[in-house]
Amino acid sequence: DMFTQTDQRGPVRHVWSSRWDDATRLCHVTMDFWVRDDAAGDTRHFREEHVQRGYEIAEIQAMLADAGLVKTAVYGNYGTRKPNAKSDRWLFVAERPLTR
To answer: CB of 34 within 8 A of CB of 19?
Structure first.
């Protein structure tokens, strides 16, 4: 339920529900949005479906190496803090070394 959340305040309301599958390591997220348009006097609804895969850190490191990339930084969630056990996701920054 990492992405399960609800916000019913303001002009954009949302309800997200997620389901994690241990076997495939896929997270299926359904996102419903309601956007209020006061000028038109109505509310528009739309839905998005997202699928995200989870990877082990060693898998990411191997993929970077296989692609010829070098990890330069790792951040937790969406900021610039170091990741920790409570980080929902780790963001890897990598670059391809210059060759001469």
So the answer is: no
